[in-house]
Amino acid sequence: MKMSKMGVRPEKIAPKDAEAINQKYLTQAGFIHQEMAGVYTFLPLGLRVLEKIENIVRKHMDKIGSELLMPALSPKEYWQTTGRLSSIDVLFKACAANEVSLMKSDAEYILNPTHEDVVTPLIKNYNPSYKDLPVSVYQIQTKFRNEPRAKSGLLRCREFRMKDLYSFHTSEEDLKTFYEEAKKVYFDIFKEIGIGADTVIALASGGDFTKDYSHEFQTRCENGEDTIYLDRTTGVAYNKEVKPEGADTNPNFEVFTASEVGNIFPLGTKFTKAFGYEYTDKDGSKKPVIMGSYGIGTSRLIGVLVEKFHDEKGIIWPRNVAPFTVHLVDIQKKEEAEKIYNMLLENNIEVLWDDREMSPGEKFADADLIGCPVRVVVSSRSMDAGGVEVKMRHDKESKIITQDEFLGYINNV
RNA sequence: CGGGGUGUAGUGAAUCGGUAUCACGCUUCGUUCGGGACGAAGAGACAGGCGGUCCAAUUCCGCCCACCCCGACCA
Question: Which residue has the least CA–C1' distance to nucleotide B33?
Fold first, then answer.
């Protein structure tokens, strides 16, 4: 993509109110644009990162579930059935805007904050028999929660993207088996995104859902909102809210701040009972369906990654989620740059070409801010040196490599 | 939802009773070109909204709205 045609550009002056690093850098670099509190547009760069993350999530989730897409809007009745119409305090209601509508409808709908209340009657409709179970479905979709305090850029939004998977089982044991498999798949995802080594599963409160623990995937992050107690002797991690007695003073516990990147819940029969979802067993008897739910906030993950991977100059994207692999900068050498640009495109290497008429310093500053893994500079200096100048975002020094080495080099970063 | 703070040009700020100034960005011309270049000439704001006080309000007062921060909450 040519930067001059992107429709969006980095800002020289950081946004005033941005306190959180992810909000500051993502806004300044032109990844997101705030529309209101906790609601953002994903600009071309931001959308690319979001889609990379969601495609990685999708690839791995396809191993344990089938993708579908439920509506963002749902009938109030579903939420009345589960009692959550009155128990969830962040529900958004939608209704006809009567000022301009010809239909004087009083109907009210819910902008879904999550989909247990939608997926359960849906799956019930198609899977009445033990022969149908277990079954699991997932979607990647926009959710709405009227957070009393939207904050910290993409970390806590009122409209956000989430992958949510729901599984349905004939027994607790079967749920347990699937649950453990889901944990593994989650780690595959976090590994591919670039945070595998820094992420742990922590026991956490089950909230409304269950008296048992839920499991949070927490990634180490200095600015994280959670505190994790990791028991070195057992390898078990606890969210501060459920930490064992004495963990504060016990030297076997490592305490660190972290950011939640995923959360999975054993739901039991909470929702299936509400909707009367029982399956027919071999002997013809009716038995309750056991359920689990598994979430990853894909837009939130963008914010977490920026909090985790940045320096004083800007973002440092992990390779697999970077908006582009190569950030191409030309200094007065448009024709040469265009050749390299086309060559990269022909080899399916994602490249952002800063083809704007600007001084070199500004282009370098924007390249650092945007944070693609490889910066390539085309200038009289690089041409005199007989090659292409490359610099990793996380390195200080650039180096010249030959045209022949170039593609191989980039594919190996 | 409690507490605190802020709303002035696209962005960031100054003015704090006499209808607004600067920087960045934008337009035009010229000169530059390896870490946020320089000169010249331009365009762009009824100062968040409503009401009040006053001869006069961006400035003082009240209400509303919006945004940010701390806390509570976070299925």
Answer: A359
Mean pLDDT across A298-320: 97
Whole-number Å distance between alpha carbons of A165 and A67: 9
Tokens in use for A402?
A: 């030959």
To the nearest 10°, report the CA torsion of A127, A130, A136, A142: 40
- ipTM (interface pTM): 0.96
Q: Is A331 within 7 A of strand B by CB distance?
A: yes
Please report the pLDDT score of residue A210 as a whole number: 75
Determine the Cα angle at A8 with ends A7 and A9, to 5°. 135
In this predicted structure, what is the pLDDT of residue A97? 72
Q: DSSP assignment, residue A405?
A: H
How far CA A223 is from CA of A98, A127, A226, A243, A283, in Å, comes to 44, 44, 9, 20, 55
Cα angle value A308/A312/A316 (rounded, 5°)? 45
pLDDT (average), residues A105-122: 93
Give, in Å, how far the C1' of B30 lies from the CA of A13. 28
Beta strands A314-315 and A326-330 are unpaired
This model's pTM is above 0.90: yes
Look up tokens 């060559």; give the residue: A343
Residue range A127-186, pLDDT digits in tens: 999 999 999 999 999 999 999 999 999 999 999 999 999 999 999 999 999 999 999 999
Say which DSSP state A134 is in. S
Whether the CB of A19 is less than 7 Å away from nucleic strand B comes out as yes
A242 Cβ nearer than 7 Å to chain B strand = no
Which tokens sit at A91?
A: 């529900």
Distance A365 CA to B34 C1' (A): 12
Cis peptide before A251 (omega within 30 of 0): no
Give the tens place of pLDDT for each residue, A374-408. 999 999 999 999 899 999 999 999 999 998 999 99
What are all long-range contacts of A394-401, with beta carbons under 8 Å and residues at least 24 apart? A394/A316
- Chain B bases under 7 Å from protein CB? 1-2, 5, 10-13, 23-25, 32-37, 66-75
Residue A261's H or E segment, with its range, is strand A253-268
Question: Torsion angle of alpha carbons A126, A130, A134, A136, nearest 10°?
Answer: 10
